Protein 1
Amino acid sequence: MARILLPLLAVALMGPALPCLRSPALAQTPLSGDSGRIVLSTATLRYVVEGRGKAARQRLQMDRFVLIGHSVFGLAVLAYARRYPNHVAQVVAIGALPEVSPSFNQRSDEFWNMYASTGRKAADEKNRASLTRDSLAKLTPGDAFIARYVARAAHYWKDSTYDASPLWKGVVVNVPLVAQQFDASRTFSFAADTAAVSVPVFIALGRYDFAVPYTTWEGFRGPFRDLTVHIFDGAGHYPQLEAAAEFDQQLLAWLRR
């Protein structure tokens, strides 16, 4: 039976019925290799696919698994499944980007400008205004990253006033790595390679996700042989938290097909 492997760089925030998968997202741990830490210049999404996946299989002594990724690492697990289908039983991509590129950033901005309510935009402006240069200068680079991320609540959560600070407690952010992962000049398009994804894929998107709008997946569904896309009306970038009951129900039913 396939077991569940969580990506080493970004494990998802899961709902109450799946407590074993609950942990803060994003690249929260330093990437370690044989020498203690990998060279950051190679820590791109392609490195995640080619290097970390193999290392995880060897370390965990697992040959085939259900692979789960959130946000940018949802894109990574999709690419991994296409590259190594014999090692993947199913893929769950939550709030996953279809690509990292200037085009994606433009489409996200357009979605925000068109669909974010006046109240949501006001909340976003208020949060951003609270982050002064002096206040950020007093923080470590990692803590400053977290402060900026939390301040963008209107982009990540259906509840634009949600305070995600407790979710980041104890998280160590590898800032140089995060900067590389989201560098739009280093494009990583899942659709650029037309090879099919042969394993079943479940993509979970939030109706109120302004970081990864569900509309950005339009035109990216061709390479899949068995694709299920579910848009959670009561959630943003984290449907596993904001729509936990529905998320658990949908995911577990899909896994048991």
Note: Residues 45-60 form the longest helix (16 residues).
Protein 2
Amino acid sequence: MRLFRNAAVGITLALLAFALSFAIVAYGPRRYVVVQNHYAEQALWNGDKLFLTVRSGGFAHSEFKAGNGTRDISAAEFAALRALDPTPHPRRDPVRLALRLAYSFIYLLIPFAPLLVSLISILGLKTKLLANLPEHASFSNVLPQQFTALDRNQLNRLTQALENLGFKRAIDYTMVSDMAVPIPAFGRLLVNGRSNCFAEINQVFPPRKKPTELACSFTTSYENGWVVSTGTRKPNGGSWIMRLPQSVWRCKPGLDPERLFRAHQQQGSELASDLGIRVLPVSTASDYFPGVQSRMQQRRAVVQTKPVPMILFEYYSFALRPRLEWKGDWPKAAAKRTSFSTQAAQA
């Protein structure tokens, strides 16, 4: 959100700077030099010579200026000069105008350099997203003691709550990938063979940042590639950009594991009923990680195919209106199935 605010302010100030620079150069006061106690009433250019009608003491008279010198001219002479060019505004050298505009623009933008840096970083958002989506990853056994910042007390509380729901520990793991800047993370995977559901407790430790809050989530896989996930950690703009059409998710911040599990089962039952699909059986961690790797590759493909303007639009659209649920193609697939069933019944 801070990046969004900096970018918005930077873009706004840059546009204001450009507008002000253009106004100063194109419409600002001209440096007409006339005799003391006189001011210009009309200006007329003929080549590089400036002719002014000036007013002094309430009386108008014509005056000629060339270089630093001035002299009075008669009304007839002024009228003759006016006939050569009736347009009452100065002729400008386009090259000089462009240079002055550039100088003013650069001068006014110097104070806003940090905001422009933020804008440049925004344009590199796609590269950052791809950098956090490794092409290859493996999952290795770890011990909680290896992560000094891990919230061990909350880990034990969540583990006990999940075991009370019938889940059994499968593995404590971390992801090993080919990312340029690896992000340490701890995950504890539990499985419930009766409900065919996985539960995961995880915490991420970004470099030079505070660790994320330890969070709990549930995942169930269904036929035809459908997946339902329910968790307590709020999504961000990056996860919204990488959403998949058959990966349904819902965020329920603040729910305890028992109520979160019930909400997860309810949504899974609704999906299965609407689409006429069955849950896939699971029993060990080996049933979990292939799906994780597959979805990781799908998300990477989604980011690669999206143009930068679309990525920026979705990112800031989410920042302005965060979502806690994504149903993907579920409504469309359900409507298509209903329509097909109706047509079959009528036939």
Note: Residues 27-41, 55-64 have pLDDT under 50 and may be disordered.
Protein 3
Amino acid sequence: MEDNKDMVTATETAEEKNTQGEDKAEKTYSRDELNKIINAERNKIKAEILKEEEEKRTEAEKLAKMKADEKLEYEKQKETDRANKAEMELNAYKLKDTAIQIANEKGLDVKLLDMIDFTRESAETINSKIESMTKLFKDAVEKGINESLKEKSPRYVVGTTENSKKNISRASY
């Protein structure tokens, strides 16, 4: 009876399974196994938090060791990097907007532009990529249309004139 209290079932009981017609094995965990699983998850989360705190502490120590001029230079560099990153993102949004307009004008599907990394491209390279995508897209569409319009070559069947006359007379117009 005490063993039943220590067992936690992860699925339905066997009786309920039989009524539903399922033949899955019942998975049970003891309290010790559940505690091990929960403790492992806790330890993983603690490790992540400790790693973040360690990074913050090393950054603070680095700043504490620096002289006033070095601190200003370091902070200035960080702000410059952040500003450059923000400017690159803004330019990427502008380039993407322009690329979407060009693609719409050329009849190119806008979803194809998702393949381009706008943060690393310039206006000229994006223009040439759109040109090549348009050409490839139109070639693929033309090939698909030609394939679907292709007809099988007619078979020539030699038959008697009697049979062909009957078939022609039965054909409806």
Note: Helices lie at 2-6, 14-20, 31-65, 68-106, 123-149, 161-170.
Protein 4
Amino acid sequence: MWSPEGTDGARTSREQALKLIAPISARLGALAERTWFSYATILLLQAKVLWGMWLLTPGDTSRYFVTAYGWYRHWTTDIAWSPLYTSFYGSLLHLSSDAYVATIGHRLVIVLALAVLVLALMRRLLPPALAWLAAAWWAIMPVNYAAVSEVHLFAVIPVLLAWLVLVGKPSPWRRGAALGIFAGATLLVRNEMLVATVLFALACLASELRTVLRAPRTLRKIGLAYGLPLVLTVLLTGFLYTASRVRFPELSSHLRDKHTLNVCQVYAFGYRQRHPEWTFSPWSECDALMRATFGSAGLSFSEAWRRNSVAMSEHLVWNLSLIPSGLQVLLFNATSGQVSPDYSRVVRGWWVAVASVVSVVVCAAGFVRLYARRREWTPWFRGEEAVAVPARAPSAPARDDRLQRAAPGAPLRETCALRAPDPSAPLRLSGSRAR
């Protein structure tokens, strides 16, 4: 039977529990705001996730080790095959000449560095607690640390560095530095980043042309902002080129062999996904398929397209159809599709489709909210210092005599001003009067 005494006792117990929890919650919230705590805990979390992964990967790491060993013994590299990565890999051999220790060690360094960079980027975009949660989500996803080849993980580092440079008050120096990083990553890490680099360069060109048309005197400053990072990229590329075992004119055929091998392997892998009856290895037995489909092996992408555009179109459409599954794997390490978007097998489940729908709805709601508040962030995006946003006036504004006495002759303005953007903090509205 219900009794008032029982209800009052339960309410009292809840209040006491909240009183005990409140100080702990406040302390945890304060710790989340501290930079050292966020970085220390994300490193511990990533180390815990990696603990026990002491097996060597079956990908191309052994091939890259040969080049890395050349850097260790003779300071030589291969300019066509990710020289920045192999020089980093080979440098760790100076700490331990044991191949196993250096290989596991360079993987740990890359993954831990990625966790730190992701957290740094998230802290520039989100409040500290949410930033830590986003970085933790990255850290626990196997797709972000269990790659078949470590070079693919290493290639993410310059991308994160470029974004860290870009996040902040827009300026030619930021864009120039980011373009230099993208160009260096294209030349020295992964050549396929050329597409992203060119698109970013075109966006920068459009932005700077608009600035120069408004203020022609800024041309010299803009040229310096872009020229200096690109010169540094050229110098680094030249240094690694002088250490390369392969140079011009042999380098041209060397780069072609690399490209044609990639075309052969990726086409064969996609073909096997579409035609399970083809049971050969796409890595070592793709030449026969290329001859049967295109009439010859060792073809570049453009050559294969000219010989059989129907087959290449089918290949491209197939890869585009895998994008939704690829996004699911990035977010949830699983997919609802029937075909893996990766070279390795991935987890499949119906729950991924539900989680994907929820994610799309949340993102759509966020974009609607962002568009509704566009007057707050578009001036910052254009690099303007400040903008005034009128606030709704109260129905019966109350006169505050204390404020009038504190600032004679200064009427209380019923507006809230958008502060000049701080590169290290998200935009916040500040008003002269609380509501």
Note: Residues 360 and 366 are 10 Å apart (CA to CA).
